[in-house]
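Hey L., structure's done. Input below.
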Amino acid sequence: MEAWIGAVGVDGAAIARDCRTAGIALSAMNVSLDGRRVKDRLRGGEPALSVLARATACGRSLSD
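Output:
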């Protein structure tokens, strides 16, 4: 959990929980989707399921 919090920053516990529930891997935090990294989208308030849908639409996998 500490690694997740460190990766996403502010309110990391809630974001980490949402990512784990959605199946977004910690290793996916630096993946770029439409010019913005996954962790930046999450920090900006985009829901984890929205990030996952965006990745799927782009043909990218965010799972391990």
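The longest helix spans residues 12-22. Helices lie at 2-8, 12-22, 38-43, 48-57.

-- N.
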